[in-house]
Write the structure tokens for this entry.
Amino acid sequence: MNISVIGVGHVGLVTAACLAKLGHRVIGVDQDKERIRLLKGGDIPFHEPGLEEMVRANLKEGKLSFTGDMKVGVRESEVIFIAVGTPSLPNGEPDLSFVEAVSRDVASHMDEYKVIVEKSTVPVMTGDWVKRVIERSLSKGIGFDVVSNPEFLREGSAVEDFLKPDRIVIGIESERAEGIMRRLYEPLKAPILVTDIKSAELIKHASNSFLALKISYINGIARICEKVGADVVEVARGMGLDHRIGSSYLQAGVGYGGFCLPKDVDAFIKLAEGVGYDFELLKACRMINISQRRWILEKLKESLWILKDKTIGILGLSFKPDTDDIRDSVSISIIDSLKKEGAKVKAFDPAAMENAKRVLKDVEYCSCPYEVSKGADALLILTEWKDFKDLDLKRVRREMKEPLLIDGRNLFDPKEMEKLRFTYISVGR
Ligand code: UGA
């Protein structure tokens, strides 16, 4: 099938490359000329395991191409995915102006029936709006269908998530579009759930918010574990074995970050408010998440008292492993607080250093974790990169001024750390 994906950011590019891998002919469209230039040469502007190889292979086979020309994208495709950004407005609502502008643009180039798919994370009712905008801008007599097809891709494993999905959700109004969407995803042999458009839109919001809830729930449990002397890892294991609960998203830590969960929780609270429902549960989820960020600073102060002029080593800058994304990263906000207290900060991340350098200037960026440890009064682990799990801890300890390690991701066994003579503080243990 001929497909175009408008907006080749994280979600759009993964979608475009994976659809090409499934055998479709895909055009990625973006107004960012520099991005298109890079992509045409097979270069990926962010870190996502497996993506670069896939883009290059499909470019070579001629199944994937990139253009800045919307007309080409629209005219040559039967299905058009809208995957442009929906950043948060200051009041927590998503900014849908890109979605609106692209819908209008798509309509202006349409010359025959097309299926227009919302892939961007959008609030319920957006499908209706997209339909109205297209209707208004379209020449009479041209048919189209709007489909909601939310993505459930995690950064760092987005390619795998696309190719082996738990489910594909398709919100649809016409049988014609349903047939086209089923054909498009047929090669994946994955379960397909067909709903109305609004339900599909809500599935995305409800799913992301539920994941955030699970994380905040276990972080709340972690606080209680600390008070009573229990181990949150064991508690989570015991809970997770119950298949009604499940073990994923029960890892206690410094809280959820990234470009999706925090923004989507905010947007869902706003959306609920807009329809007259006070979603108190999600507000509590958000509060717990904010307090986890404070927790680590409190622990640090309990051990070091004054932070001014102390050297604090930071391991991990991205909001989670296997990505260079630092948007709403817990690490970045903690470093910000440390700087405000007058601490000297040294940091290392396997992938996110360049992005961090752009937003945090007054930080000593190191070439490896051992350099970070050198002379440090404390070391904070804020992202669970595998490289950190495999650290030579004896060497880390030798390098440090004080052997204080605060592990915001519970990477190590407290007993082992005691044997290694660390003052080891982890979450909920
Ligand atoms: C999330 C969802 O998981 C995807 O399904 C969704 O498609 C995506 O948002 C989106 O809306 O685009 P992502 O933001 O890439 O994906 O990251 P997650 O892997 O879900 O992790 C989010 C945050 O939660 C990270 O900071 C992570 O460290 C934290 N986390 C996750 C925990 O603290 N504990 C856990 O048990 C799991």
Notes: The chain is about 45% helix and 15% strand.
